[in-house]
Amino acid sequence: MARQPRKSSGTGIHHIMMRGINHQNIFYDEEDYYQFINTLDRMRVRYDDDGLPCGTNYILYAYCLMPNHFHLLIREREDSLGMAVKRISSSYVYYHNHKYLRDGHLFKERFKSEPVNDMAYFTTLLRYIHQNPVKAGIVSNVKDYEYSSWGEYTGQVDPVFRLCNIETVLRRIPYTDLNAIVNEPLPDSFTSLDDDNERPKFRLSDDQVWQNIIQITQITTATEFQRLDKERMREALRELKHLGASVRQLERLTGLGRGIIQKI
User: Fold this and answer.
1) Is 129 exposed, middle or buried (0-12, 13-18, 19+ CB in 10 A)?
2) pTM for the full model?
């Protein structure tokens, strides 16, 4: 089936989500998260032939980095949407593959996107993107998550290190109002680009499962897990499932195919 063309945005603003291939993690430690944030910073600036800044490739309004995917609220400028995402993802893949001694794809082939054509939906997405870590059970409060742009809005991030154009947002929505909006939980009925990422209640979080993986196998990446000998891998998967890890979580965290995990 032919791919459907992306919907255009009258404002040039899009919500982007990109996930690791086979739902596996793309960030394993603090260095990985900050490398990606640094990449967002570098790739938004356009340079001339002499290496001097001469424009803006894109404008960011929000971002949130989750263990196996990321969200951006981004506006096209000099770069097209596809080119902007390609610059960001290609740079990070180069770093990741070099660090973890791997090759091949890290992300699913095609990122997901949706146009943002009015202020009401823009505000809903600011709320949704920043609430991702709370919904996933990683933190209790939006302000406690280190790898999102909310710290830029609250002043936790020094202005010199800001990536997002928060001034434009705050001219439209005063901070007091925005803070109340972003911290008001969205209804469970709201879904967006990653609506297949829901986590059932009363189940271990991905972070808890990953800590179990480390404890059981003494490995720290999905690539290392895939290199375990077959018997050790089977024993680890059996124990992880016994502890409450779901097939989807194991698929996401180890990078193994669903069929392999289900056979255990």
Assistant:
1) buried
2) 0.73
